[in-house]
Amino acid sequence: MTGADHQMMKTRARENPFASERVERLLVFEPEWIDLNWSQVMKRLEDLDYRAAVVGPHGSGKTTLLRKLKTDLVQQDFVVESVFLNEQKKSLDESVWQRLARIDGDSNKKVMVMLDGAEQLSWREWRRFRSAAYRHDGLLITRHSAGKLPVLLETETRLEMFMDFTRRLAPDVGFEDVVLKRIFTSTQGNMREALWQCYDLLAEGSVSGAG
Question: Checking phi first, is residue 202 left (phi over 0); if not, alpha (psi -120 to 50) or beta?
């Protein structure tokens, strides 16, 4: 490989439309995909007394949906405390318990606790967490399956959704439908992993288009 070729690869990586930072910023589950809008989602959350779960498989947009809801709640004068768990971090450290005990609103603000990855908690730890969170005005969690709290909405990925999002991310990249279908099937509908595969194909020069 020549120096020029090596430099071209590095430039392509920096400009890859499927770079993780860009995907994480833009991969947001849209309520319109399940025939809702944001106003309806917020009204449903209010009807559930601000205690609910967002349910869906890996890579279906639950985390970025929480970020959007957090922004909306802050605009409604909520104080939002966010907690994140995953396969690498399955339990809550003492600092989280201290934050939950310390956080408070004021006469004009309510407190919402958000837990992304509730299925990671043991039954005992979940009961402790729920008890601490229920001192406040709301609790919103994400899970892979229904349970623990009433369902606010379910994030479900479909092939059409993946194809639409891929083309919005990279309108100049010539992915064939059969390629996108194969990627979506191989990742079992995990949108994030499917988009990583798009990144790899583009980085390898296996797809014509931008660059």
Answer: alpha
